[in-house]
Write a structure and sequence with these properties.
The chain contains three helices and four strands, in the order ββββααα. The longest helix is centred in the last third of the chain and has 13 residues.
């Protein structure tokens, strides 16, 4: 499935839209070992992105790094 990049903050996050119109966020995590967590935004997160833009994504990426287990279950 193809994805279109919407916005990227290097070494932080990448927001994309897939062919179905769903928003997918990839967040860079880790310190010694670097890995990413990629998940679809839920309705609440989409509203945050639409109302706050990059500020919201920055906050969400920090939350993903602080609580990775909560987002790992939503992986795509």
């Amino acid at each position: 499935m193809a994805r279109t990049k919407i916005i990227e903050s290097k070494w932080d996050y990448l927001l994309e839209k897939d062919d179905n119109g769903e928003l997918i966020l990839e967040v860079v995590c880790g310190t010694v070992a670097i890995y990413t967590i990629t998940f679809r935004l839920n309705d609440e997160e989409i509203k945050g992105w639409e109302s706050e833009g990059e500020k919201f994504l920055k906050h969400l990426s920090y939350d993903v790094r602080d609580h990775p287990k909560e987002y790992l279950v939503r992986r795509v």
